Amino acid sequence: MKIEIKNQNETEEIAQRLAAIAQPGDVIALHGDLGVGKSVFSRAFIRAMTTPDEEVPSPTFTLVQIYETEACELYHFDMYRLDAPEDGLELGIEEAFGDGISLIEWPSKLGAYLPWDCLNIKISHNPADQNARHFEFSSQGRWIERLKEIALV
Ligand SMILES: Nc1ncnc2c1ncn2[C@@H]1O[C@H](COP(=O)(O)OP(=O)(O)OP(=O)(O)O)[C@@H](O)[C@H]1O
Ligand SMILES: [Mg+2]
Questions:
Q1: Cellular component terms, GO, for this chain's entry (predicted)?
Q2: In the prediction, which pLDDT does 103 show?
Q3: Which residues line ligand 1 (CB under 6 A)?
Q4: pLDDT digits over 8-37, tens only?
Q5: Which of 61, 69, 79, 113 has an alpha carbon 20 to 30 Å from 43's alpha carbon atom?
Q6: d(C-alpha 73, C-alpha 69), whole Å
Q7: Where along the chain do its domains lie?
Q8: Burial class of 17 by CB neighbour count within 10 A (0 to 12, 13 to 18, 19+)
């Protein structure tokens, strides 16, 4: 399930559409290189679920930032600096994955702690256009059906 997008606005729009259908227990794993747009996606998603002017600091050093939404708590993780997968437990991943909605940058750092039914979004650069991106969606869970319902794939 792949889509090509032209610019940052389109990345933000995809994030907003996903935020509109997000439910407690959802985990969205954002894969991709440095500077590809994981934080841009996360900021748009968080603002869509909170308020348009919500301050969204980078969790680079804290590793997690937590937001209140109407439905549940929204967790924004950046695992780049996680030393070992089990250190994720101290960040509250069990609570987050159970009852919250989770966005995870650098999800591979969690190893086997990444839930089997998460939505994987792999974002990649387009060498021919600095504002274009390639989005690839994959999941073992029911995500692909859900994405079809909102015409995302
Ligand atoms: N289509 C696009 N989608 C997202 N960001 C884009 C796009 N085109 C250009 N950009 C730019 O790419 C950069 C993405 O930065 P961002 O911090 O979101 O990356 P990141 O994947 O979170 O990196 P890191 O791994 O360092 O956390 C921003 O400067 C943004 O303006
Ligand atoms: Mg980032």
A1: cytoplasm
A2: 98
A3: 5, 7-8, 11, 32, 34-40, 105, 131, 133
A4: 999 999 999 999 999 999 999 999 999 999
A5: 113
A6: 6
A7: 2-147
A8: middle
